[in-house]
């Protein structure tokens, strides 16, 4: 896992270094306080909770859909795979410079979480459907088709498990947590 992650980071760094200034479209004219996207669809990696693939597609000048697929470990002894998708709104650019924009974004979305956990030397399968409310900052380069992001997401998971009925151990319920990740994406258009 660490080797493939290291190779992925090295490949993204190589793309960032070799991308020419002509790869990103010029940013459209905008009002001073609003962020306007100059990118279309991006794909990359994220590290944290979850660690895996990250994508983003701009629907309009300041709205986007993001998604992620990756591995996640939880503080309650659960580990597994999660997939999420969020609708994002970029209401303001905190910094506007010739080289980059620093938009703040907020959103709402959902996730699916398939996991296993250990209790009394037995592994149990479970899952969750969750609501996500991400808040993040994106370092959006103007002349290179790359963005770097940091986000926190409030997550409310509706947990269900497949525990043995004779085990007298039930993990069903609603759990609220905060996920955090940072990542980088390369934009193809």
Number of domains: 1
- Morphology call: elongated
Q: If classified by CATH, what would the architecture be?
A: Beta Barrel
Question: What order do the SSEs take from the amino end to the carboxyl end, as H and E?
Answer: HEEEEEEEE
Number of DSSP E strands? 8
Class based on secondary structure composition and strand pairing: mainly beta
Reading off the top of the CATH hierarchy, the class is best stated as Mainly Beta
Report the sheet-strand fraction: over 45%
- For the biggest β-sheet, the strand order reads 1-2-3-4-5-6-7-8
C-alpha-based Rg, rounded = 19 Å
- Helix run count: 1
Can you give the helix content as a percent range? under 10%
Distance separating the two termini: 30 Å
Mean pLDDT: 81
Major beta sheet, specifics? 8 strands, antiparallel, barrel
Unreliable stretches (pLDDT < 50, length at least 5) are 1-22
Question: What secondary-structure arrangement, pairings included, does this model have?
Answer:
Elements: H1 2-18, E1 41-48, E2 51-58, E3 63-73, E4 79-96, E5 100-119, E6 122-141, E7 146-161, E8 173-187
Antiparallel strand pairs: 1-2, 1-8, 2-3, 3-4, 4-5, 5-6, 6-7, 7-8
Tell me what you see in this structure.
The longest helix has 17 residues, at 2-18. This protein has an 8-stranded antiparallel beta barrel with strand order 1-2-3-4-5-6-7-8. The model is unreliable at 1-22 (pLDDT under 50). It has a single domain (2-187), classed as Porin (Beta Barrel), CATH 2.40.160. The protein is built from 1 helix and 8 strands. By secondary structure, it is mainly beta.
């Amino acid at each position: 896992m660490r080797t493939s992650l290291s190779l992925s980071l090295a490949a993204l760094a190589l793309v960032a270094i070799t991308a020419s200034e002509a790869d990103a479209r010029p940013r459209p004219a905008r009002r001073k306080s609003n962020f306007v996207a100059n990118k279309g669809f991006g794909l990359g990696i994220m590290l944290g909770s979850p660690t895996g693939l990250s994508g983003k597609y701009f629907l309009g000048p300041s709205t986007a859909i993001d998604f992620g697929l990756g591995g996640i470990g939880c503080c309650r002894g659960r580990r597994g795979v999660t997939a999420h998708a969020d609708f994002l709104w970029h209401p303001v650019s905190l910094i506007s410079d010739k080289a980059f924009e620093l938009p703040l974004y907020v959103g709402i979305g959902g996730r699916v979480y398939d996991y296993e956990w250990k209790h009394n030397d037995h592994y149990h399968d479970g899952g969750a459907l969750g609501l996500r409310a991400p808040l993040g900052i994106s370092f959006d380069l103007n002349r290179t088709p790359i963005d770097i992001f940091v986000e926190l997401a409030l997550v409310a998971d509706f947990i269900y498990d497949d525990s043995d009925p004779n085990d007298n151990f039930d993990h069903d319920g609603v759990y609220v947590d905060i996920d955090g990740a940072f990542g980088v994406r390369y934009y193809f258009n």
